[in-house]
Design a protein that fits this description.
Elements (H helix, E strand, L loop, with lengths): L19 E2 L10 E3 L1 E4 L12 E3 L2 E3 L12 E8 L2 E6 L4 E8 L2 E6 L4 E8 L2 E6 L4 E8 L2 E6 L4 E8 L2 E6 L4 E6 L4 E6 L7 E2 L2 H15 L5
Parallel strand pairs: 1-3, 2-4, 3-5, 4-6, 5-6, 6-8, 7-9, 8-10, 9-11, 10-12, 11-13, 12-14, 13-15, 14-16, 15-17, 16-18
Pfam families: Pentapeptide
Organism: Paenarthrobacter nitroguajacolicus
Protein name: Pentapeptide repeat-containing protein
Length: 218
C-alpha cells in the first residue's frame, strides 16, 4: 500500500527583537501595543476588546476574566499565560506561539487562527466553535473538552495530546492529523471527515462508528 502523504501545518518560528519592557502597563480598550515585553503582570478583569498586540511577548501574564473580544495577536509569544476564565471570542491569532498555558474555560469561538502553535499546558474547556483554523499545531496538551463544532480547519495537528471529549459536530476539516493523541469520547462523528487517524485509533472508534451508522455487531 502506498504511503499516505499528510499535509503538515506550515508554521514559522516567531522571532522578536528589541522589545520594550513594560512592568506596569496601562491597558486600554482598543489600543495598539507594538514591540512590548510584559513579564509577570496582571491583566485580570481588564477591558481589552478590540486591542491589537503586535510583536509582543507575554511571560507569566494573568488574563483572568480580561475581555479580549475581537482582539488581535500577531507575531506574539505567550509563555505560561494564566486564566481560569479566558474570554477572547472573535479574536485573531496569526504567527503566535503559546507555551504551557493554564486556562480553565477558554472562550475562543468564531476566531481566526493562522500559523499558531500551542505546546504543553493543561486546559479544561477550549471553545473554538465556529472558528477558522489554518496551520495550527497543538502538542503535549491535556484538554478536558475541545469544541471544534462548526469549525473550518485546514492543516491542523494534535500531537501527543490527551483529550477528554472532542466535539466536531458540523465541522469542515481537511488534513487534520489526530494521530498520537488520545480521546475518551467524540461527539459529531460525521464531522470527522477529513481527519487522519492511525489503525489503533480506528479500532477504538469502531464501536462509536458502528453506533453512528446503525450497525449491530453480534
Amino acid at each position: 500500500m502506498a504511503a499516505v502523504k499528510v499535509a503538515a501545518p506550515k508554521i514559522s518560528p516567531v522571532r522578536l527583537d528589541e522589545l520594550r519592557d513594560d512592568d506596569a502597563p496601562d491597558f486600554q480598550r482598543g489600543e495598539r501595543y507594538d514591540g512590548v515585553r510584559f513579564t509577570k503582570v496582571s491583566a485580570d478583569g481588564e477591558e481589552l476588546s478590540g486591542s491589537d498586540f503586535i510583536e509582543c511577548e507575554f511571560n507569566g501574564v494573568s488574563f483572568n476574566e480580561a475581555q479580549l473580544r475581537g482582539a488581535t495577536f500577531r507575531e506574539c509569544i505567550l509563555a505560561e499565560p494564566y486564566a481560569p476564565v479566558f474570554t477572547a471570542a472573535r479574536s485573531s491569532w496569526q504567527d503566535v506561539e503559546i507555551s504551557n498555558p493554564r486556562w480553565g474555560s477558554a472562550e475562543l469561538y468564531e476566531g481566526n487562527w493562522r500559523s499558531v502553535r500551542i505546546d504543553g499546558g493543561k486546559l479544561d474547556y477550549v471553545n473554538l466553535r465556529g472558528s477558522k483554523l489554518m496551520d495550527v499545531q497543538i502538542s503535549d496538551c491535556i484538554i478536558n473538552e475541545l469544541d471544534l463544532g462548526n469549525c473550518a480547519g485546514t492543516r491542523v495537528a494534535l500531537k501527543n495530546c490527551t483529550i477528554g471529549t472532542l466535539d466536531v459536530t458540523g465541522a469542515k476539516l481537511k488534513d487534520v492529523d489526530l494521530r498520537t493523541s488520545e480521546f475518551r469520547g467524540i461527539n459529531g462523528l460525521a464531522g470527522l471527515a477529513g481527519v487522519i487517524i492511525d489503525d489503533y485509533q480506528l479500532s477504538l472508534m469502531a464501536p462509536l462508528l458502528a453506533g453512528h451508522l446503525g450497525i449491530r455487531v453480534v
